C-alpha cells in the first residue's frame, strides 16, 4: 500500500474584509510590467462597485467577467487561454478567480493550461498535468463546494465530465472573506451549502474513511448542523462558519471520496446541464436507502428553510437518455467503491439507477 502525498493550499488569509488586502498579497508576485494579472470574476458582480472597486488593476492587468450560468467546459477554458495568449505579450503573472465553484474551477484550469500544451480535455483524469501551473489565487464568494481547497478542477468535456486532478491544481493562495457571501439568494445559499453537507455524509459514511478525513468531515458536519439546523447564529457567524465548513468538507474528501449523490448528480449534469449544488440536492433527496440518517436530516433542513427541490426533471426522458446518465454515473468507479465497497458491481445495477433517476 502506498499513500498519497497530498499538496495543500500553502497560503490562506481569513477574515471579514480580508479581500481589501488583495493588492498587498499579489503585488510581490508580479513578474514584470508586461506580465499581467488576469482576473476572472463572476459576472454577478458586474456593476457592483462594493466589490469591483477593490480589484487592483495596473499595467496590462485584465478583468474578465464570466457567467456562472453554466459550469466550466473544456472548450471554454481553451478559448480563454487562447485569448489571454493573444492579448498579452508575456505569460501572465497570475490568475485570480473571484466567484463560486464555477469561477474557481475556471481559474485553476486556465492557470494550468497556460503552461501545458493542447486542449484541457487531454488532462481530464488523474495526474496527467506535466508542467506546474502559473501562480493562481482563489477568492470564493459562495461557500460549500470546497473548490477553494481541492486538488481538482471539474470540467465538462466532449466525452466526459471529469476533473483535472493534479498536484498543480490547488491554489497558491486563497482569500477567505466571508463578507463576500452576503448577497447570495437563499436558494443558491442552500444548494451550495448542501454540497458541503453531502461531502461530509459521503465521506464519513464511505469505505475510504480514515482518521484524516474523519477529523475534517466531522468538523464540517457539525458546522453544517449549527448553520442549517440549530439556527442560533447571527448572519455573520453563519457566513463565517459556512466558509470554514466548506474548507473542512473539501479537506475531508481530499483523502477519501464522495459517493452515490455525486456519481448520479454528474449524470444529471452531463445530460441535462443540472448544476452541481441543486443536482446533488435532487439526487440526495432520494437516497434514504444509502444514507438514511443523512437524508433524514437533509429533509429537516429543507423544511426549516422552506426550500423546494425541483421535481420531475427526468419525467420526459427516453431510455437512450437514461442510459447516458447511467453510463456517466457508473464510470465514476472510485465513488461507488467508496460508497458501497469493493464488491459494488454486484449491488449497483443499471436498473437500480434507472429506477432512482425515474423518481427525480
Ligand atoms: P456557482 O459558482 O455555479 O455559482 C452559483 C450561483 O451563485 C451563480 O449564479 C453565481 O453567479 C451566484 N453567486 C456566486 N457568488 C455570489 C454572491 N456572492 N452573491 C450573489 N450571487 C453569487 O456555484 P457553486 O455551487 O459554488 O459551484 C458549482 C461548481 O463547482 C460546479 O461547476 C462544480 O462542478 C464545481 N465544484 C468543484 C469542486 C472542486 O473540488 N473543484 C467541488 C465541488 C463542486
Ligand atoms: Zn460536491
What distance separates the N and C termini?
A: 40 Å
Bound compounds, each kind once, are: nicotinamide-adenine-dinucleotide, zinc ion
Silhouette: globular
Please describe the biggest sheet, giving its number of strands, its sense, and whether it closes into a barrel.
Answer: 6 strands, parallel
Rounded to an integer in angstroms, the radius of gyration calculated over CA atoms is: 20 Å
Strand order of the largest sheet: 1-9-6-4-2-3
SS field, number of helical segments:
14
Structure, described:
It is globular and about 60 Å long. It is an alpha/beta fold and 360 residues long. It has helices at 22-26, 49-52, 74-87, 101-113, 186-204, 211-230, 235-254, 260-272, 276-284, 292-304, 319-331, 333-340, 344-347, 350-359; strands at residues 12-14, 37-42, 62-66, 94-99, 125-126, 136-140, 154-156, 161-165, 173-176. The strands form 2 sheets. The protein has a 6-stranded parallel sheet with strand order 1-9-6-4-2-3, covered by helices on one side. It has a 3-stranded mixed sheet with strand order 5-8-7. The mean pLDDT is 97. Helix 3 (74-87) packs across helix 4. The longest helix has 20 residues, at 211-230. Strand 7 (154-156) and strand 8 (161-165) form a beta hairpin. Bound molecules: nicotinamide-adenine-dinucleotide and zinc ion (ZN).
